[in-house]
Amino acid sequence: MATVGGGAKPSTCVFCEIARSSASTTLLHEDERVVAFQDIKPAAFRHYLVIPVEHISTVNDLKRRPEDFSLVSHMYDVGRTLLRRDAPQSTRYRFGFHQPPLNSVNHLHLHCLALPFTPRWKSIKYFPLGPLGGFIEVEKLLQRLKPLSALSSTL
C-alpha cells in the first residue's frame, strides 16, 4: 500500500489489515478507494468508520489538492449513504475526524455518527478543542482542502 505524507506505513496498522482483508471485520461498504465498518466502541446509536484503502496517517497528511479533496468527499458520501440507509429515523448526524494528538489510530478514518450519543458523556470526544485539535467536522476539513482553483472560481 502506498503511503503519503512522507511517513512509513506502520507494520501493524489495524486499519490497513481491515482494508486488505476483512476476514475478521464485516464491511458495510467496499470500493477501490474506501471501506466502511462499525466502530468497535460505538459512541452513538449508529457509529461507522470510513477509511481509505491507501494508508494515510492523519488529517495532517492531507493537502489542498484535488485528490485529497475528492477522497474526503467520497468518504463523506459513503458515510452519509450508510447512515441514511441504516438510521433513517435519526434527525441528527455528525461526521468528522479526530486530529493529532487525539486520534486513536494512525490511519485516517471518518467517524459517521447517527445521534444520540450513547451514553451521552461520549459526546465530549467529538468536539473541537481549538489549538489542541480535537474533532474536526468533515465540512470544515473539506473547506481547508478545497483546491485553490475551485476557490477562485467561486469568488
Automatic annotation (TrEMBL):
Motif Histidine triad motif mapped to chain: 107-111
Catalytic-site annotation from UniProt: H111
Location of the HIT domain: 14-126
Key words, A-Z: Hydrolase, Nucleotide-binding
Single GO MF descriptor: adenylylsulfatase activity
Matches recorded under InterPro entries: Histidine_triad_HIT, HIT-like, HIT-like_sf
Protein name: HIT domain-containing protein
Phylogenetic placement of the source organism: Eukaryota, Viridiplantae, Streptophyta, Embryophyta, Tracheophyta
